Every structure is written in structure tokens, then in C-alpha cells.
Amino acid sequence: MTEKLTQRRRQNDNKHPSNLNNDQINEKVVAATKKRKPTRNNASPKESFLLKIKSPIRLSIFLIMSIVVLFYLCKILIGFVSTEHTNVPINLPKLVNINEATPDRFWGTYRSNLYFGLKHQSSKSLSVGFMWFDYGTLQRSNDRFLRHGCDQNDQLKYGWTYHDGERFGIEDIKDNNLDLNIQWIKQLSGQHGGDWTTRINVTPK
């Protein structure tokens, strides 16, 4: 009996240190995994931010918001640059100084985009133009038949026959059913850049 008891004690003694070794190994493994994979509670602010945007939906929202912020920042920067560099007045003499004596070329046919147009050399110019239409053609067609701005589709023959660039000009315009003769003359008098007169002769075909 005594021999059996001693053998059992030896077996129990041998099992006890092995259990201790297993517990120590398990504790080391748990500590290593904690170091490698930090939990959300123990993670640093940078790691927690990355964990928050880990999902595809959050990542897409984050990218869209960053693009919008960059767009508005670029827009503000471009507006600042444009206002800083383009709205600076040029230190050059003006084309026409209203306070000085009126020049000879203050009034003139300076509206080249019209069949006939007058204006003066000022920032707030009074613009004068000439427009016409043929009533018979207007009744037969639903299209707008108004002559004012130069258009190749009108298929008109027009041009200045005489013009000195300052005081007078004569223009001939040949429409489909009309011949127009425009005479313009300017007299250098008064305080408004001269007095001008226009006479328009219309001859139906």
C-alpha cells in the first residue's frame, strides 16, 4: 500500500509543474497578441481614425468630402488671385478725356458690326443704329426679317463708297427689294464733339 501511495504522489508531482508551464505559455501568447492587435479601446488616435474609415461606405464619404473641400479652397484661391491681379487699373492716358477740349474724332462710325451705326469715344457712349425690314417679305415669310447687325445669311451688298474717317461718309446697301443710300456728315462745332446729320434714301425695286 505504501508503495502505491508513493507512486501516486510522484505522478501528481510530475503533473503539477507541467500545468504551471502551460499556464505561463498561455499568458505569454495572450500578451503577444495584445501587442500585435491592439483593441479599439487601447488604440492610438491615428489607429482609431483608420478603424473608423475602414468600411467602404465611410471611405467613399470621406473622399467626397475631401474633394469638395479642395474644390472650394481652389475656388477661393483663384478668386483671390484674380481680384488681386486683374482689377488693378492701368496707369495710361485715357482715349478721350472729357475735361479736355473735344477731339475731332469724338463722334464716328465706330460700330463695325452693324450695317450703319454711330457712337462716340467714351466709356458711357450713346449708341445710334439703323434697322429696317420689308413689309411684303415679312408677310410672306414666318422668319424674322429685320436688318440691323451684319449677317452673311442676309446676302446683302453693302459698304462705304466714300469715308474720310472723321467728318463724312457715304454708304450704299443693296437689299433684295430695296436700295439704300446713307449719307453722314459732321460739323466740328459745339461742346459735344461736333454736330452730325444722317440722311437715308430708300429706293424700292
Automatic annotation (TrEMBL):
Residues 106-204 form the Glycosyl hydrolase family 63 N-terminal domain. GO terms for cellular component: endoplasmic reticulum membrane. It is found in: Endoplasmic reticulum membrane. Signal peptide: none annotated. Pfam families: Glyco_hydro_63N. It is an enzyme of class 3 (hydrolase). The chain crosses the membrane at residues 59-81. Keywords: Endoplasmic reticulum, Glycosidase, Hydrolase, Membrane, Transmembrane, Transmembrane helix. Its main location: endoplasmic reticulum. Its EC number is 3.2.1.106. It is a single-pass type II membrane protein. It catalyses: N(4)-(alpha-D-Glc-(1->2)-alpha-D-Glc-(1->3)-alpha-D-Glc-(1->3)-alpha-D-Man-(1->2)-alpha-D-Man-(1->2)-alpha-D-Man-(1->3)-[alpha-D-Man-(1->2)-alpha-D-Man-(1->3)-[alpha-D-Man-(1->2)-alpha-D-Man-(1->6)]-alpha-D-Man-(1->6)]-beta-D-Man-(1->4)-beta-D-GlcNAc-(1->4)-beta-D-GlcNAc)-L-asparaginyl-[protein] + H2O = N(4)-(alpha-D-Glc-(1->3)-alpha-D-Glc-(1->3)-alpha-D-Man-(1->2)-alpha-D-Man-(1->2)-alpha-D-Man-(1->3)-[alpha-D-Man-(1->2)-alpha-D-Man-(1->3)-[alpha-D-Man-(1->2)-alpha-D-Man-(1->6)]-alpha-D-Man-(1->6)]-beta-D-Man-(1->4)-beta-D-GlcNAc-(1->4)-beta-D-GlcNAc)-L-asparaginyl-[protein] + beta-D-glucose. It comes from the Eukaryota. GO terms for molecular function: Glc3Man9GlcNAc2 oligosaccharide glucosidase activity. Residues 1-16 have a biased composition (Basic and acidic residues). The keyword Transmembrane helix applies. One of its GO terms (biological process) is protein N-linked glycosylation. InterPro entries: Glyco_hydro_63N, Glyco_hydro_63N_sf, Glycoside_hydrolase_63. Cleaves the distal alpha 1,2-linked glucose residue from the Glc(3)Man(9)GlcNAc(2) oligosaccharide precursor. Belongs to the glycosyl hydrolase 63 family. PANTHER family: MANNOSYL-OLIGOSACCHARIDE GLUCOSIDASE. This is Mannosyl-oligosaccharide glucosidase.
